[in-house]
Design goal:
The protein has 108 residues and is mainly alpha-helical. It has one domain. Helix content is 68%, strand content 0%. The protein contains three helices and no strands. Helix 1 packs antiparallel against helix 2. The longest helix has 39 residues. The protein is elongated and about 60 Å long. The mean pLDDT is 89.
Length: 108
């Protein structure tokens, strides 16, 4: 949720601040859930890699790290990937907002 397009010398509008809070909380929840899932998987991946000793490209730990980087881009917690063209949670939030706005206009 990029706030760069707002005037930096004026107060943040309350509705934008509330939206930013909600989106940030969603991202924090998804990030925490991902970490909760990745933690036990990383232990399993390490144990499997220690036993099987695969090449790096086939290592479960390496594949988990790649998945972590991909999920970081998707979560986009600190708006680092907004302009990268990658799919992010922000994209989903914008689509949901658009759908809600269309439904509201249909029922007016």
């Amino acid at each position: 949720m990029n706030l760069d397009n707002l005037p930096q010398d004026k107060p943040l509008p309350l509705n934008r601040a509330f939206r930013h809070l909600i989106v940030f909380q969603i991202k924090l929840f998804v990030d925490a859930f991902r970490d909760l899932i990745f933690s036990p998987i990383s232990l399993f991946a390490f144990a499997a890699d220690a036993l099987m000793r695969p090449p790096v490209k086939d290592s479960l730990s390496y594949k988990l790290m790649v998945s972590g980087r991909q999920s970081d881009r998707m979560i986009n917690l600190f708006d680092e990937y907004t302009k990268s063209g990658d799919f992010t949670i922000d994209t989903t939030v914008a689509e949901v907002e658009s759908a809600i706005q269309r439904e509201i206009k249909k029922h007016k």
